Amino acid sequence: MKMKTNHQSTSPLLLKKHQLVWIINGLKKNRFKKIRRVKKTCRSSSKDYKEKKEIARKLVKEKVERFNSFYAFKFGRISIRNQRTRWGSCSSKKNLNFNYRIIYLPERLADYIIIHELCHLKELNHTKKFWALVSKTFPDYKSINKELRTNGFKCL
Ligand SMILES: [Zn+2]
């Protein structure tokens, strides 16, 4: 199909190392193909996950510590996962989970994901109180949320 050809020719270098970008591009082009593409990427990413997991853990820990020096929330464990649809999550036991693919994101988006999950330590919801916490360090969270949605990212 023409659409597919266009897509491949516009981002040939992104197929392996920047799978995320590839998924995002795919989502924009054709919603119907979304599930297949995500599954394919998921299978091919297990090797990448093993290779990059510790890099991701280091990056995430560093960012969590940096941002939490402001918030000073208590948290349990930080886990790095190879999830298909989520960027991060925060459990009721105050454990933080992050998708290892965060290392491929632009710094601003990665920072936002960290801050978003950090704020769930205090507010495990998306109420006004929660967004007020986010906006203390990320005042333009609305535009970034929009950016994430437009690009086919799942809610955090
Ligand atoms: Zn959230």
Keywords:
about 160 residues, mainly alpha, Zincin-like, 3 strands, about 60% helix, binds zinc ion
Write up this protein:
With 156 residues, the protein is mostly helical. It has one domain: 2-Layer Sandwich (Zincin-like), CATH 3.30.2010.10. 62% of the residues lie in helices and 7% in strands. Strand 2 (88-90) and strand 3 form a beta hairpin. The chain starts with a helix and ends in a 6-residue tail after the last helix. The site of zinc ion has 4 residues, from helix 5.
Structure in a nutshell:
The protein is mostly helical and 156 residues long. It has helices at 2-10, 14-17, 19-29, 34-71, 107-120, 128-137, 141-150; strands at residues 78-81, 88-90, 96-99. Bound molecules: zinc ion (ZN).
